[in-house]
Amino acid sequence: MSANQADLPVESMCRVLGVSASGFYAWSGRAPSARRLQDAVLTERIRQIHAASDEIYGSPNIHAELRDEGTRVGRKRVARLMRQARLRGVSRRRGFVVTTRRDARSRPAADLVNRSFAAEEANRLWVADMTYVPTWAGFIFLAIVVDVWSRRIVGWAIGESMSTELVLSALNMAVTIRKPREVIHHSDQGSQYTSIAFGRRCREMGVKPSMGSVGDAYDNAMAESVFASLECELIDRRSFKTKGEARMALFTWVEGWYNTRRRHSALGRISPKEFERRQDTTLTNPASPPRTGLPTAGACVALATPAVDNPTLHHC
């Protein structure tokens, strides 16, 4: 109302709105209420949390962040203040993109999971998949291995083709870091996972391969869910001029965000790293990646070591 006072008399506006002029002047001269001041302070903190998440978090995760800070506030109030401040989180696209290319000559492994993506402890069930990332210089590809128990990406590799070497590099990294005694590795029936080299490597490391059906993303839904998050939180919001720029962005998203900071609804709104810490496991801590170099395909594939760009870590 005060914004229009330069154009319209106060008395006229009060008459149209059905309020008294004296009531308006009393309201305009009144100090803000305690609730209004609290909302202003809370909104500023919500803005900070939203910005720190790269504008990814919606009200559920911002509410969880405030709760862990010791701020007692209702989730509906957080949602209301975000609406008023025009703050929104990102949302996933619905549906799946099929990228599996099966080799008809290869025999797939049996499905040991049957869409039951649950594990009572670490290193019992891993899920794996690949996706592509567009850049101005062409595509790069990301292969991941996720521990179903904690939703942590325990192995990953970046390459310039969807090759067997790429998925082997991700598997090598997972095995080297987690050192499983007996684990099921579940994937789709892509030719990279049904290859002779991949099957041989699984036998050498004591990993049990498992595969869902062709063209059915729900048979590998957890890995698809990770990529859905990657797409809406990073790929759909960025344009990469070079492959090197995309590699660094993927590295930061996996190790600097998804594993260590991103809150997961399936974990009670905490990160995979925090979930593992609270479970007081004896896992080797994979939260400290090499200071130089990014995991990539094409080196040391025959050894149980993660392939990286840093030549000082190669053992071939």
The structural domain count equals: 2
Q: Give the integer mean of the pLDDT values.
A: 79
Q: Helical region count?
A: 11
Helix content: 25-40%
Beta content: 5-15%
Q: What order do the helices and strands follow?
A: HHHHHEEEHEHHEHHH
Going by CATH, the architecture of the largest domain would be 2-Layer Sandwich
Q: What distance separates the N and C termini?
A: 74 Å
- Strand ordering within the main sheet: 3-2-1-4-5
Q: Can you tell me the residue ranges where pLDDT is under 50 for at least 5 consecutive residues?
A: 286-295, 297-316
Radius of gyration: 25 Å
CA-based shape: elongated
CATH class of the largest domain: Alpha Beta
Q: Biggest sheet: strands, sense, closure? A: 5 strands, mixed
Q: What is the fold-level CATH name, i.e. the topology of the largest domain?
A: Nucleotidyltransferase, domain 5
The CATH superfamily of the largest domain is identified as Ribonuclease H-like superfamily/Ribonuclease H
The class by helix and strand makeup works out as alpha/beta
Q: What is the number of beta strands?
A: 5
What does this structure look like?
This protein has about 325 residues and is of the alpha/beta class. Helix content is about 40%, strand content about 10%. The chain has two domains: about 1-85, no CATH class; about 125-315, 2-Layer Sandwich (Nucleotidyltransferase, domain 5), CATH 3.30.420.10. The protein has a five-stranded mixed sheet with strand order 3-2-1-4-5. The longest helix has 19 residues, at about 35-50. The radius of gyration is 25 Å and the shape is elongated.
